[in-house]
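Following the same procedure, sequence and fold were stored together, as reproduced here.

>
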Amino acid sequence: MTRSYTPPRYNRDEIAAFEALVGRYGQRVYTMAYRMAGNDADAKDLAQEAFLRVFRAWRSIDPSAHLDSWLSRIVTNLFIDMLRRRPRVRMESLDAPVTARSGGEIVREIGDDRAGPEADVVDQQMEADVQQALVALHPDLRAVVVLSDIEGYAYEEIAETLGIPVGTVKSRLHRARKTLQARLSHLAPHRLEKIP
C-alpha cells in the first residue's frame, strides 16, 4: 500500500517569511540558474524548483544558516540533474531563418522585453558574448566558473557544493578561465572588467 504525500499546512507567518526569502534571493537564484543553463526557460524552471524544495523543507531550515550557500547548492544540483536527464541539447541560432515546409525561409521575429531605448547596445552584445562563451563550456567547467567568478564562492565552498576535491575545483576553474579568455579575446580588456 502506497502512502501519498500530504504537504504540511503553513501559517500566515511562515508563508510571509517564505515570500520574503523569495523576494530577497529570487533574482540571485534566477541569475545563477541562467548563467548555468544558458536560457531563460530552463533558468526559470531551475529557480522555481529550487524554491519549491526550500518551501517543502521550510520547517526544518535553520534560520541562522547561510541560505545563499544552500540555495546555490540546490540550483547547482538541479542543473546537474537536468543535464543528466537530457542526453544532448540541440542549440539553434535565433538569428538563422527557419525553413518552411514549402521550401521557403521564414525570418524569426523575437520580441524584446527590455524597457526603453536607453539600453546600451555594446554592453548587450558583450553580455551575449559572455553568456554564449559560458554556455559553450562543458557543464562541469561552467558550474565551477559560475560559482567562483560570478557568485564569489571560495574553493572549499565550491568543492562541498559539487562534491569534488578542492584540487579539482582549481584545475577546472583554471581550464574554464583559459577557455573563456580564448573565446572572449576579441573583447577589449576594459570591457571584460564589467562582466558580472
The radius of gyration is 20 Å.
